[in-house]
Amino acid sequence: MNTERVGFVGLGRMGLGMSRNLLKAGFPLMVWNRTAARAEPLVAEGAQLAATPAELAGGSDIIITCVSDTPDVEAVILGPGGILEGARPGSLVIDCSTISPSASRELAARLAGHGIGMLDAPVSGGSEGAAKGTLSIMVGGSEADFRRALPVLQAMGANINHMGDHGSGQTTKLMNQILVVGNALAMSEALLFGQASGIDLEKALEAVKTGAAGSWMLSFRGPQILQRDWRPGFSVDLQQKDLRLVLEAADGLGTPLPGTSLIFQFYRTLQARGLGGEGNHALIKALEHLAGFEVASGTNAAT
């Protein structure tokens, strides 16, 4: 039995699976979500439901947040009824959201002023990884806090790396997102090329996915594209939020990211068409619009 009491704030597509794995690992768990009904399955499995983030923090030793954007994290930590109101000195906040590295450093400093530790620990692996407990977790913060948090992180992820001081986990996650969308664009272009050439795309995927061209994106999202399945493991809207964070950080560093900037604009065209809730692999739809045909299994739409 794990003795650290864990509180989990944010039961969205990622948080629900992550919190369920904490229950499976034996952690006493309290949860809070803006829409309380989202917590009902976890309560049925043994979690406690808190009325506010402050109440959750007061009953927890380690508090995990997994919400959408920087303002959301700031609200649940610093806002009225937030974590800071209830957390005791000696408690530890682990933010698994993807937010601005500079904002994460500022939050850590605010919490430290009250004797509360913080780790930025954004995750990657999609809703599949959250459900299976196989997420990659990139952690920034003190070595002592990382060691304390490790059993909790191991209940949710399989590839856990301490990257350095506060903000370094978020910086690593933004690197991850540059690679994700770069892979998505390459996959989209390759499938479009294959469709235009008239080859069997399912066979082509099998042929290339275990070679040098292989990637998580290709293995998991390529088949979805061929089936025209746009259910999100990670939505276009959330991908755009992360790319905005990337481009803002890069602008502050004076670092050119021309490829990422282009992909940001492609995703923007999808949002303009009302497709923001679809999976981020729907990037291919922006290229299909330019090409004038769709990619799908068992079709030869280009001819």
Distance between the termini: 61 Å
Provide the CATH architecture of the largest domain.
3-Layer(aba) Sandwich
Radius of gyration: 20 Å
CATH fold-level label of the largest domain? Rossmann fold
CATH homology group of the largest domain: NAD(P)-binding Rossmann-like Domain
Note the quaternary state here.
single chain
Number of strands: 9
**Unreliable residue stretches:** none
CATH class of the largest domain: Alpha Beta
Biggest β-sheet strands, sense, barrel: 6 strands, parallel
* Biggest β-sheet: strands ordered side by side in the sheet: 3-2-1-4-5-6
Helices and strands, in N-to-C order? EHEHEHEHHEHEEHEHEHHHHHH
Percent range for helical residues?
40-55%
Mean pLDDT: 96
Give me the number of helical elements.
14
Instruction: Kindly give the count of domains.
Output: 2
Note the beta-strand portion.
Answer: 5-15%
Shape: globular
Helix and strand composition category? alpha/beta
Architecture overview:
Helices cover 52% and strands 13% of the residues. Helix 9 (168-197) crosses helix 12 (236-253) and helix 9 (168-197) packs parallel to helix 14 (284-291). It is globular. The protein contains 14 helices and 9 strands. It has helices spanning 15-24, 40-44, 53-58, 70-78, 83-86, 101-112, 126-132, 143-156, 168-197, 201-208, 216-226, 236-253, 258-272, 284-291, and strands spanning 6-9, 29-32, 48-49, 62-65, 92-95, 117-120, 123-124, 135-140, 157-164. 44% of the residues are buried. It has 2 domains: 6-164, NAD(P)-binding Rossmann-like Domain (Rossmann fold, 3-Layer(aba) Sandwich); 171-291, N-(1-d-carboxylethyl)-l-norvaline Dehydrogenase, domain 2. The strands form 2 sheets. Strands 3-2-1-4-5-6 form a 6-stranded parallel sheet, sandwiched between helices. It has a 3-stranded mixed sheet with strand order 7-8-9. With 303 residues, it is of the alpha/beta class. Helix 1 links the parallel strand 1 (6-9) and strand 2 (29-32).
